[in-house]
Automatic annotation (TrEMBL):
The gene is dut. This enzyme is involved in nucleotide metabolism: it produces dUMP, the immediate precursor of thymidine nucleotides and it decreases the intracellular concentration of dUTP so that uracil cannot be incorporated into DNA. Its EC number is 3.6.1.23. InterPro entries: dUTPase (IPR008181), dUTPase-like (IPR029054), dUTPase-like_sf (IPR036157), dUTPase_trimeric (IPR033704). Its cofactor is Mg(2+). GO terms for biological process: dUMP biosynthetic process; dUTP catabolic process. This is Deoxyuridine 5'-triphosphate nucleotidohydrolase. Pathway: Pyrimidine metabolism; dUMP biosynthesis; dUMP from dCTP (dUTP route): step 2/2. Keywords: Hydrolase, Magnesium, Metal-binding, Nucleotide metabolism.
Length: 152
């Protein structure tokens, strides 16, 4: 299924020096987001910075949201993750997409202009109506919390 997504290009390097956000493979779930920086950015160990993506989006459909997620290779190999864990973009937001990058490693990392630093995933939203109850109908899990099934 393919849905139209309104995108405003905020950086003139898109379409000229950089390709538009795109899926890396036919089965990729996320569109790559680039660091629309004017100059290289050195993130020291433990440092974070708000990095422009160079685009704004408008989902327009209240049944959709977008998530800004880290790129697994950057996180595993270099310690570069999102400072806020995950960015949630509501359907009515129309401002620029900013990426909170955090260097959780012990080594400095240089982000170059145009580097693919995050990904954007569009997801359906299910809205709920709260129903206050005194007890729940029993489930197999019940109140079993963190690690309740063990490791092995």
């Amino acid at each position: 299924m393919s849905l139209p997504l309104q995108v405003k290009l905020l950086d003139p390097r898109f379409g000229d020096r950089w390709p538009l956000p795109a899926y890396a493979t036919e089965s990729s779930a996320g569109l790559d987001l680039r660091a629309a920086l004017e100059a290289p950015l050195t993130l020291g160990a433990g440092q974070s910075s708000l990095v422009p993506s160079g685009i704004a989006i408008h989902l327009a459909d209240p049944n959709l949201c977008a998530l800004v997620l880290p790129r697994s290779g950057l996180g595993h190999r270099h310690g570069i993750v999102l400072g806020n864990g995950t960015g949630l973009i509501d359907a009515d937001y129309q401002g620029p997409l900013l990426i909170s990058l955090w260097n959780r490693s012990a080594e400095a990392f240089v982000v170059q202009p145009g580097d693919r630093v995050a990904q954007l995933v569009v997801l359906p939203i299910a809205r709920v109506q709260l129903k206050i109850v005194d007890t729940f109908i029993a489930s197999a899990r019940g109140e079993g919390g963190f690690g309740h099934t063990g490791v092995r």
